[in-house]
Amino acid sequence: MSISLYELFLVLIIGQCIFLIFAIQYIPKKNTGANRVIQYLLAIYSLFLFERAMGHQFERDFLRLYGNIINTFYLFIGPLVYTYIRRLLFYKNGNYQLAYYHYLPALLYVGYCFFHIYYYDSIIDFKSYFTTLLFWNDVIFFISISAYLFKSSRLLNYYKQNEGQELSFNQTIIKYIEIMLIGMLVYMIFWWLGIVERFVVKLPIDIRMIWDISCLIFGIQIYIVGFYNLKHPEIFKIRFPSKNENIPKRKNILDEKEISKIQNLVDSFFEEKKGHRRPELSLSILANEINTTTNKLSWILNNIYKKTFYELVNEYRVEDFSKKINQNKHKEFTLISIAFEVGFNSKSTFYKAFKEITNVTPSEFIRKVENSQRQ
């Protein structure tokens, strides 16, 4: 049995997949529901890569007879990716499950696989039969994964648009998921090229090269998924929109007395308790601290303060930071240590928020303070 360098590379990736499946088990118990889904995806990826690397070692009739069973797992990729993102980004969705009908195509395909095995000996024109089978397999799998890729992209866009309403910091999770979805999009583009090359018109690139590139893209995604899950076990989530959640749209949700009460509690939390210094602060945490609901608090922020949660909290942090600079704390401590002290959780979030609020960089602000002190 001989094996090429490319096939050896795929085997190494499979080994990495297996390692990650077990390593994720030992991540601190954060996002366990999402991590369980990524383990399923890693197992599916391993299976596909194994078929690509070692498939030629099996007899042709064996693959024709039973190969379709492995193809069934293509119909699980889209639903699992969507479930993973849903569980990862939105709280109270740690055990979120898609409705059963999302997996119905896979169950129907399994039924077809058994029919195919039963019917196999009766096939007369193998070439015509398998050409038709391969075409519909490729089209169905392409439509399935593409549909859930679109659905997952919309979910990520919602998170990006509403992250500032509930979180007081930025997360690298956005870039990670974007890379993951872009990787899947590229994979689907190559898949479509494979369909065109095999069934429509010959392309300058060989079909085998197309599938090899596709497998490499799968491999790259494995490293991205595994690296992020191991390095960033904690993800801060936001609420998933409810179909009946129309409270923020209503202008008379609260009376003046309750508005004043909540506003005073919010002001006290930041000004007296210095709550903005908590780097993990989120809308749900603040609502719990002042004994109100996230819907009411969100309405107050949008209609009374006229700010997002991100804007409000970071204004307090920037103000706190500015006071420390005026007290010459920057001569004793680094800028980042002061930024962390006032509640920022990363250098990038600090610089971005400071520039947005003051229209100058921290260094420019310090120079202005020092110049004013000399006068």
TrEMBL record:
Pfam families: HTH_18. Residues 260-368 form the HTH araC/xylS-type domain. It comes from the Bacteria. Keywords: DNA-binding, Membrane, Transcription, Transcription regulation, Transmembrane, Transmembrane helix. SUPFAM superfamilies: Homeodomain-like. The keyword Protein transport does not apply. The chain crosses the membrane at residues 7-27, 62-85, 100-120, 132-150, 173-197, 209-230. The keyword Protein biosynthesis does not apply. InterPro entries: Homeodomain-like_sf, HTH_AraC. This is Helix-turn-helix domain-containing protein.
